[in-house]
Amino acid sequence: MRRVWRRFAYFVVLAWWLGCAPPGVAGTQHQREPLNPLEIDELRDAAQEPAARIKLFIQFARARLVSLEQTRADPKVTDRALQTHDKLQEFLEIYDELNDNLDTFVERKADLRKPLKEVIEADTEFQAKLRALKSSSDAGKEAAQYQFVLDNALEEVDGSVQDHRQLLAEQEAAKRKKK
Length: 179
Hints:
Shape: globular
Strand content: under 5%
Number of helices: 7
Structural class: mainly alpha
Low-confidence stretches: 21-28
């Protein structure tokens, strides 16, 4: 439930920002699909398999953070702040989809114990990478261009860690109850 409120607050701030943006800025902003066609096909193939689908979302989110690290380490990149922003936004959208899929599979009463353990491990990794980016000394002035999305990504992962652990505990308790 807390994740729903965070997402709501995110969209309220986004709507406010777009409303305050100079004319033409809101119109030029377009939503880009965070997944490439191959990734979409892989997800489609795993549509009915909770464990496989969740594993794919973890893989895609991890790939976005690895790509982000490579971009930030590449001295040839000229628009580092913009690319950092875009990759963080893609990560956040994929991570939100991961959480939406978890919610869907919970509603379907799927056994998510094994995938949730992988999600919790990935959460720890994602937190470390996002915190490292936030505290990096080379961020400086360019950080202002992606600070908002970085803060949102950190909030989402931090909040979801607790949700994922609680869900795992509930799933394990339900399984013990059935025995």
